[in-house]
């Protein structure tokens, strides 16, 4: 049964609530971990930081992600239709921020931030040896790419480091703030 809306409407929000700037909304609902996205165009591989992404389907795994038109990576993504999503842990946080504050237009970010590109099996974009997991992806939908930089990626192969069962991911909260993945809680749930 649903909740009946009282005559006169719901009670006012408790006084402890204040209106938030709309620009801060994403800082509270930012979803999954900050990831790295690699691309390869011809003989050039690049890497960028990405926190605006979400799962869209279980299997095959589909991931929606925003790669802004101004990012050098967006050109490679557009032209090749493929990339790798690599998952860094908290030990890589400084490199992750550095990668997100510099462009492959000017520097070799793999060399600059000490990352080891590793061969993927189905895409030219590299996996990253220091990351605890890597997903080989193909772009399957670009309907909203021009408007929002939004692309749907299908993960076609996925790898994870079996020696690191419990990596701590980082989660962007804006302006250089990150939450570090913490305590694990297990509750009965019908959700897979
Ligand atoms: C924590 C963090 C999260 C970021 N998330 C995104 C994102 O989701 N989408 C995006 O287009 N850029 C994002 N960026 C910015 C890009 O990583 C940045 O523009 C980068 O310089 C692009 O590199 P490139 O020009 O070599 O492609 C993020 C940066 C940081 C530091």
Q: What does this protein structure show overall?
A:
The protein has 192 residues and is an alpha+beta fold. It has a single domain, classed as Electron Transport, Fmn-binding Protein, Chain A (Pnp Oxidase, Chain A). It is 16% helix and 33% strand. It has helices spanning 25-29, 72-80, 93-100, 109-112, 145-148; strands at 35-41, 44-50, 53-57, 62-66, 82-87, 117-118, 127-128, 133-141, 150-160, 170-174, 177-180. The strands form 3 sheets. A 7-stranded antiparallel beta sheet has the order 2-1-5-8-9-4-3. It has a two-stranded antiparallel ribbon with strand order 6-7. Strands 10-11 form a two-stranded antiparallel ribbon. β1 and β2 form a beta hairpin. The mean pLDDT is 93. Flavin mononucleotide is lined by residues 34, 46, 48-52, 66-68, 71-73, 97, 100-105, 172.
Describe the structure in brief:
By secondary structure, the protein is an alpha+beta fold.
In terms of topology, how is this protein built?
Elements: H1 25-29, E1 35-41, E2 44-50, E3 53-57, E4 62-66, H2 72-80, E5 82-87, H3 93-100, H4 109-112, E6 117-118, E7 127-128, E8 133-141, H5 145-148, E9 150-160, E10 170-174, E11 177-180
This protein binds flavin mononucleotide (FMN).
């Amino acid at each position: 049964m649903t909740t009946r809306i009282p005559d006169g409407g719901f009670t006012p929000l408790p006084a402890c609530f204040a209106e938030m700037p709309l620009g801060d909304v994403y800082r509270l609902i930012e979803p999954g971990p900050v990831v790295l996205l690699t691309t390869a165009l011809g003989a050039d591989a690049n890497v960028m930081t990405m926190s605006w992404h979400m799962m869209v389907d279980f299997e095959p795994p589909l991931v929606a992600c925003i790669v802004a038109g101004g990012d050098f990576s967006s050109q490679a993504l557009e032209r090749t239709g493929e990339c790798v999503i690599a998952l860094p842990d908290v030990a890589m946080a400084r490199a992750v921020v550095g990668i997100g504050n510099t462009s492959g237009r000017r520097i070799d970010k793999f060399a600059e931030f000490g990352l080891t590109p590793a061969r993927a099996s189905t895409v030219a974009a590299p996996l990253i040896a220091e990351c605890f997991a890597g997903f080989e992806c193909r772009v399957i939908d670009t309907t909203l790419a021009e408007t929002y930089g939004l692309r749907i990626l299908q993960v076609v192969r996925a790898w994870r480091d079996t020696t690191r069962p419990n990596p701590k991911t980082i989660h962007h909260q804006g302006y250089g703030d990150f939450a570090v993945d913490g305590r694990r809680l297990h509750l009965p749930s019908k959700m897979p």
